[in-house]
Task: structure prediction
Amino acid sequence: LTAIGIFDSGVGGLTVLRALKQALPGESFLYLGDTARLPYGAKSADTIRRYLKQNVDYLLRRGVKAIVVACNSASTALDDDRRVSSGEAAAPIYGVIEPGARAAAARTVNGKIGVLGTRATIRANGYLRALHAIDPNLEVIQQACPLLVPLVEEGWSEDPVTRDVLQRYLRAPLEAGVDTLILGCTHYPVLRKSIAEAAGPAIRLIDSAEEMAQLLTGELARGAIAAESREQPNLEIWTTDTSEAFREVGSAILAPYSIDHWDWADIG
Ligand code: DGL
Result:
């Protein structure tokens, strides 16, 4: 048996890895952070689709048994075929959009849902389509929040500057009366406390990391992915650039879990 592969444009997806590690302690994980090419959230759909394919091919070459696309921007480029193959290898692939949309649709009371994401995620309308596939009557207010990723990467999760920026981004969804907000980006769970404060106590926050952990737990339980229960599961991180800053931010996001191996990935 092998590891579960997971990829993101950078360190943000470690929020998803952390949630998976917590939910599935016996599993090994191989994480690919495409740090040489981030941010994905500012790129065109064609470029993101190309990156998605390269990252998937890399993880398949590494022999993973399943692939989790932690990146929301990249998840919007996934098509409906939920099994990917390359050469001899094949694996089921999971994006974060559907589980997040399902959770939001289940938890809203007034049928008004806000979606926060990068420009690429909002432009692709992935959450909007997924929500309307569940219930066409849902009112969906989408808000691109391009300043939030750099603020998280700067470590300013609870800074007054971040609070001001959040108030500005949340104005439209709150004025529209949403009762549920989808944190549609890998970095936003790090801002959960500040987002909750800015949104107020009545708003439900949907964290794609937690929803993915629940989905994968179900997939392992029903045998769609072969389950493993190792005493010493392995946690490897491979990045396409070797910048040191990511190690610091990454280790803080992943705590209390530690990394067994960190290396440079030649994705070709
Ligand atoms: N991982 C991206 C996402 O979830 C955010 C960072 C980026 O723009 O690359 O959309």
